[in-house]
């Protein structure tokens, strides 16, 4: 297969022949090609359709700034839309498809939009889809969604893994062109820890695209030698295919490494991309510059390209953009393209230079002081029409037009920390301003130094300067290279153009759109951007923003710097969601915490629920049980009848020690702990400083100076943090030490009338756990099963006679098995969090649903617990009048009058007769459950002045679900209100 | 009262096995280590010097400075916070390490058993730094022997203890997240072993 | 951001939990005449300046120290980092 436009030379590997398809048609390219260079080599100029008008488009640039040549790569789960053909490294078997066309790229039905262009102008959406209002959701939005957009995703799961990582260095060098390589050599030789990152797969930047010599050898050879030297240094990390996408605070940078984008699929286990977070002491931005176009009528035809890109394709990839090329330029750089092409034997039909004093050209006709005013060619450029300095029009035959409007330094990363670029008159471009991100310096073209020698020099000097800050001595050694001055006359767009002149290719914004925005008074650059969508496409306007600003400046009569730029924000180029997610996908989205009985519970077929990161057994289905309620009811009844066991390891456990431990607890809990005897446990309620209940748990006193407190599962981390705050910031001189022991102990609740009998078979005989010796709320250290250390607490959440027993976690699995074996005699059951919840509602214990961030101790029926005799967090503000009104909400129980009806949490209490609306709201149901003991649905509720309303019949309104249930207000303690069971 | 519990309870490793797990990759070996007893020691206010002296007498080594670890014949010690350390020793010989240390420091320190609060992996091999740079925001290449940092690995708070620069690390993480932590370690080990 | 921990050196801000104005250290006297008003101001009237701000950060994924970080909220420049316990003592807090 013939690559019709392939030239000689270049940096491609001709021994490597790579087959690929574009829109199903087979082509061949070489190793080192990009999809764009390979397509051009095969004479393919038409690569896509534009976003709005579906205009035929080809490739415009040779780099990551590409706005037009966007393709879909691969298929199935790996299908990736909007890939820039200019950065897609060719691999054997690559399947690429054009986008945004139907039925084919050559015959696109939606091209009718182009005829409607008078209608589809700036602000089109805002003006058109205003009325009728109801049409938006049903008609406009779906229609627009169908018509707009570029590529498609397959909707299948991405089969690849993505990774993240963290790197640290003295000096991060962003960009490996002449400046970056020179800086890296300087810093690497000085022994600094260097990271050199470049988005390209080949280091060298423009050295690979130009014919300049460096130090007497070809620029690309110099780059190759530099890379070889750097690769030999242990202190230098070379990161090719790595785009630094953002500059963050304090020297932190984000970078995406495309590990396996250049192959059909990663090898097993290899990530496709890695998102690196780089912490640098200093950074040197050597990101180069981007050439900008000149707008003229119909300047978007396939074949109209940047002059530097035409040169890159010829020199680096040995590809002629077409057999006949013309050049349109306002500066000397355009002439280089002509010269390089002519040297390679490509026919250059004309050099059109806007400058009247343009330098002479050898081997092509020069039109000085001329402009390109139009172009022809339906699916690819055939000719351009020019107006000569003398005012004649003339048509020039060319299949490619190389356009150069000057260079814009890539200042993007210098602006990620609020910095603003500043205007440079000589370059007619923005260069980095004075407010750079901390630790950053800029060198080479990115700093506005556009010659090769200048890049090499500023790179080396930049490295010397930043390393000096770090106390590392380095010496700059700069080879001889080209050092031509910039000679440019600003020229942004051809004003006499009759047709549409494109500014933003990707979002189809024309000069006319900017004029319209101006006419409608959207003159601020930020308004201009959003009104016309200039620069808002995936290329973020890298080739278009300056042109848009220049046109607006012209219209408003202001200078470009007065007009200003929009903000540059990360990412520099698009980042895939996969790279951002890394490995945190699917069931590895967040870490999981397993309880000590996890394996055992899994064997028992437990159904698990996530509580924070914890996986807790929710219930344990038995054979024949088909509904969760059957399992839960059985677990509740069996526990209340005999004995049940529940893993409560997840409750936070904090060890509190020190001479002032009791005093400290007095301050962090609302109730008093100073007088709690050793060997006893007390319930504790924690308030926020605003007087709202925060968390509850127990504190067990193991010694005068030693407590173990528990927190709820959900709040363990927050309570610990709050206790450290109290210890370090509020009462720094209290002698108290804290440490979490949540995971060190496997803790099981053993509840039910036979719980003591079961524990007596486990706890070693020398420990007397009779009711007399170990009464309700006792705690102590014991041994079990012949000597294993354990902690025993006689506390109850279920309302039954109950204990919690803790053993070192490694024995947790054996412990649950022992409890089940020994409990067989009592028909012991394991119970899960559902049964636990049912029993605590039956008992009227407040939990997370009641401690919901709005309730006070008073609301929860614990008002008297708040000690007025001591200072504690929250007690002063808990006395605020507003929290202590006579009709304050109080915790009550609710029970349906008709036992077949169900109470639901979230329903609101209303008077039995009367309106159901917010004005008549009396309170709300916080928790609800079916009580198998009472054989009725029950609930806990917060009711205005509830304590005084027991016996009242009210209704629970749940308008969302259309429920309306009559209930009786009862005590929250449905089961054993006097607590007799606890004390036997 | 029938007391029939006569069998010895069997211990399980953090990963839920009866034997510690070992995973070997090209350049990295990851071994679960259940054989170290752990105890935290915090100096009581006003008794910092006494606590240090008593601890040194018992451990045979000075309590280390921030971000450092130290070892003696039978013990290792890690700094974990201001005036707080973690002591480790062989589990079989020192299952009751907490009481041993409490006896040693007495009222000059608060002592808490931490053994089973943690899972522990020994990670060694030529690729350890490559492994950890994918897991935590720590400059592992710059860590020298006995440097210790607390960091987050896949959202799990861990201690990372450099045993030998560039070659061997101990990772300790909360025991309940052992499976998640181990998963993160072997996933990254798989990646770095490809290079 | 990077916070230069007084004991541990530069650490990534992701290891920390942010609380807010360091004035939260100055918890009012519960027995004062105007305790209710003072607590109200303490809790609800905290500064949130655009500029230099002293604020509390907690090294949760680290050594569990509370720190007072002096940070410019506009530039994120951190000019001082202290152990909150030292600050609290210096401001007269004790038992």
User: In the residues of chain C, how many domains can be counted?
Assistant: 1
| Straight-line N-to-C gap of chain C | 34 Å
Spatial order of the strands in the main sheet of chain C?
Answer: 3-4-5-6
Largest interface: A-B, 67 and 60 residues
Low-confidence stretches of chain C: none
Q: Determine and state the CATH class of chain C.
A: Alpha Beta
- Average pLDDT for all residues of chain B: 95
**What order do the helices and strands of chain C follow?**
EEEHEEEH
The beta-strand count of chain C equals 6
In helices, the fraction of residues of chain B equals 10-25%
Query: What is the 3D form of chain B?
Result: globular
Order of helices and strands of chain B: EEEHEEEHEEHEEEH
| CATH topology-level name of chain C | Folate-binding fold
| Name of the top-level CATH class of the largest domain in chain B | Alpha Beta
Protein name (chain B): Sarcosine oxidase subunit gamma
InterPro entries (chain B): TrmE/GcvT-like (IPR027266)
Domain Aminomethyltransferase C-terminal (chain A): 890-976
Keywords (chain A): Flavoprotein, Oxidoreductase
């Amino acid at each position: 297969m013939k690559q019709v436009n392939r030239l000689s030379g270049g940096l491609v590997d001709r021994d490597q022949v790579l087959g690929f398809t574009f829109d199903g048609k087979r082509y061949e390219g070489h190793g080192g090609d990009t999809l764009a260079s390979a397509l051009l080599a095969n004479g393919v100029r038409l690569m896509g359709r534009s976003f709005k008008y579906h205009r035929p488009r080809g490739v415009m640039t040779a780099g990551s700034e590409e706005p037009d040549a966007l393709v879909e790569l691969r298929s199935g789960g790996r299908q990736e839309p909007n890939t820039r053909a200019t950065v897609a490294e060719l691999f054997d078997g690559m399947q690429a498809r054009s986008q945004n066309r139907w039925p084919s790229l050559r015959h696109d039905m939606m091209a009718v939009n182009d005829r409607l262009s008078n209608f589809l102008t700036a602000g089109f959406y805002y003006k058109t889809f205003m009325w009728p209002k109801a049409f938006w959701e049903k008609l406009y939005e779906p229609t627009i969604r169908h018509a707009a957009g570029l590529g498609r995703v397959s909707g299948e799961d991405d089969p690849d893994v993505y990774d993240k990582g963290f790197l640290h260095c003295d000096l991060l060098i962003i960009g490996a062109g002449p400046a970056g390589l020179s800086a890296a050599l300087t810093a690497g030789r000085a022994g600094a820890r260097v990271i050199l990152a470049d988005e390209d797969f080949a280091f060298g930047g423009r050295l690979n695209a130009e014919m300049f010599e460096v130090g007497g050898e070809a620029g690309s050879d110099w780059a190759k030698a530099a890379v070889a030297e750097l690769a030999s240094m242990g202190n230098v990390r070379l990161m090719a295919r790595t785009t630094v996408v953002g500059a963050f605070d304090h020297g932190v940078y984000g970078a995406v490494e495309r590990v396996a984008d250049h192959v059909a699929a990663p090898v097993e286990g290899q990530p496709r991309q890695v998102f690196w977070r780089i912490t640098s002491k200093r950074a040197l931005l050597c990101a180069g510059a981007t050439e900008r176009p000149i707008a003229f009528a119909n300047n978007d035809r396939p074949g109209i390209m940047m002059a530097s890109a035409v040169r890159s394709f010829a020199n680096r990839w040995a590809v002629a953009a077409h057999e006949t090329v013309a050049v349109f330029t306002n500066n000397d750089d355009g002439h280089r393209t002509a010269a390089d092409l002519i040297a390679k034997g490509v026919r250059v039909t004309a050099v059109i230079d806007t400058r009247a004093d343009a330098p002479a050209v050898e081997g092509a006709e020069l039109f000085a002081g001329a402009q390109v005013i139009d172009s022809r060619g339906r699916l690819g450029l055939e000719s351009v029409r020019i107006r000569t300095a003398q005012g004649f029009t003339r048509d020039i035959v060319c299949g490619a037009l190389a356009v150069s409007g000057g260079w814009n330094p890539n200042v993007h990363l210098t602006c990620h920390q609020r910095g603003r670029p500043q205007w440079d008159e000589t370059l007619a471009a923005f260069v980095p301003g004075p407010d750079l991100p901390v630790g950053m310096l800029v060198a080479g073209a990115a700093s506005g130094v556009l010659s090769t020698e200048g890049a090499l020099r500023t790179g080396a000097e930049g490295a010397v300067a930043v390393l000096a800050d770090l106390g590392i001595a380095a010496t700059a050694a700069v080879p001889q290279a080209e050092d031509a001055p910039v000679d440019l006359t600003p020229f942004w767009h051809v004003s006499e153009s009759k047709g549409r002149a494109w500014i933003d290719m990707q979002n189809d914004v024309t000069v006319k759109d900017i004029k319209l925005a101006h006419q409608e008074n959207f003159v601020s650059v930020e308004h201009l951007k959003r009104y016309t969508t200039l620069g808002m496409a995936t290329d973020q306007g890298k080739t278009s923003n300056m042109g848009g600003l220049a046109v607006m400046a012209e219209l408003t009569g202001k200078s470009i710097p007065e007009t200003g730029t929009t903000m540059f924000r990360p990412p520099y180029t698009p980042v895939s969601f996969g790279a951002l997610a890394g490995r945190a996908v699917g069931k590895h989205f967040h870490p999981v915490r397993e309880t000590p009985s996890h394996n055992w519970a899994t064997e028992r077929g437990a159904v698990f629920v996530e509580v924070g990161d914890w996986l807790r057994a929710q219930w344990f289905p038995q054979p024949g049980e088909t509904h969760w309620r059957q399992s839960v009811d059985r677990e509740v009844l069996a526990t209340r009848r005999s004995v049940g066991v529940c893993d409560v390891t997840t409750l936070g456990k904090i060890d509190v020690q020190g001479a002032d431990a009791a005093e400290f607890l007095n301050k962090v809990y609302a109730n008093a702990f100073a007088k709690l005897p050793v060997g006893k446990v007390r319930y504790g309620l924690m308030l926020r400083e605003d007087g709202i209940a925060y968390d509850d748990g127990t504190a067990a006193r193991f010694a005068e100076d030693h407590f173990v407190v528990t927190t709820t599962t959900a709040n363990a981390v927050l309570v610990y943090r709050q206790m450290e705050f109290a210890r370090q910031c509020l009462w720094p001189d209290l002698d108290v030490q804290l440490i979490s022991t949540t995971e060190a102990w496997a803790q099981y609740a053993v509840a039910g009338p036979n719980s003591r009998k079961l524990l007596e078979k486990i706890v070693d005989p020398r420990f007397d756990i009779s009711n007399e010796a170990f009464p309700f709320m006792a705690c102590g250290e014991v041994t079990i099963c012949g000597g294993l250390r354990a902690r025993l607490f006689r506390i109850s959440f279920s309302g039954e006679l109950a204990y919690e027993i803790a053993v070192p976690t490694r024995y947790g699995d054996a412990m649950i098995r022992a409890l089940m074996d020994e409990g067989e005699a009592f028909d012991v059951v394991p119970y899960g969090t559902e049964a636990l919840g049912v029993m605590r509602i039956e008992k009227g214990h407040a939990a997370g649903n009641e401690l919901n961030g709005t309730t006070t101790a008073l609301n929860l029926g614990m008002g008297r617990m708040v000690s007025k005799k001591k200072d504690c967090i929250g007690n002063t503000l808990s006395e605020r009048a507003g929290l202590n009104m006579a009709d304050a909400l109080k915790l009550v129980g609710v029970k349906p009058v008709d036992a077949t009806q169900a109470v639901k949490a979230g329903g609101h209490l209303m008077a039995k007769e009367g309106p159901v609306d917010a004005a008549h709201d009396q309170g709300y149901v916080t928790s609800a459950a079916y009580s198998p003991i009472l054989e009725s649905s029950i609930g806990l509720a917060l009711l205005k002045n509830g304590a005084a309303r027991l016996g009242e019949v009210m209704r629970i309104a749940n308008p969302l679900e259309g429920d309306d249930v009559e209930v009786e207000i009862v005590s929250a303690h449905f089961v054993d209100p006097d607590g007799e069971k606890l004390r036997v | 009262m029938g007391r029939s519990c006569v069998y010895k309870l069997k211990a399980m490793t953090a990963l839920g096995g009866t034997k510690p797990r070992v995973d070997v990759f090209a350049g990295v070996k990851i071994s679960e280590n259940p054989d170290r007893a752990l105890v935290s020691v915090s100096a009581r206010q006003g008794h910092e010097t006494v606590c240090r002296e008593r601890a040194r007498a018992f451990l045979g080594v000075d309590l280390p400075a921030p971000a450092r670890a130290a070892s003696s014949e039978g013990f290792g010690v890690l700094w974990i916070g201001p005036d707080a350390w973690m002591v480790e020793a062989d589990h079989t010989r020192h299952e009751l390490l907490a009481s041993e240390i409490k006896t040693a420091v007495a009222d000059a320190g608060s002592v808490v058993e931490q053994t089973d609060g943690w899972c522990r992996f020994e990670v060694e091999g030529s690729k350890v730094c490559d492994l950890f740079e994918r897991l935590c925001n720590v400059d592992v290449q710059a860590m020298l022997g006995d440097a210790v940092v607390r960091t987050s690995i896949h959202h799990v708070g861990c201690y990372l203890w450099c045993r030998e620069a560039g070659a061997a690390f101990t990772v300790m993480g909360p025991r309940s997240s052992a499976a998640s932590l181990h998963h993160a370690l072997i996933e990254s080990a798989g990646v770095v072993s490809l290079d | 951001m990077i916070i230069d921990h007084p004991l541990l050196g530069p650490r990534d801000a992701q290891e920390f939990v942010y609380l807010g104005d360091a004035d939260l250290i100055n918890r009012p006297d519960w027995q004062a005449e105007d305790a209710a008003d003072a607590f109200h101001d303490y809790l609800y009237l905290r500064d949130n300046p655009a500029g230099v701000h002293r604020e509390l950060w907690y090294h949760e994924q680290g050594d569990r120290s509370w720190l007072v970080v002096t940070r410019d909220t506009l530039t994120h420049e951190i000019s001082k980092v202290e152990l909150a316990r030292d600050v609290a003592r210096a401001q007269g807090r004790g038992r």
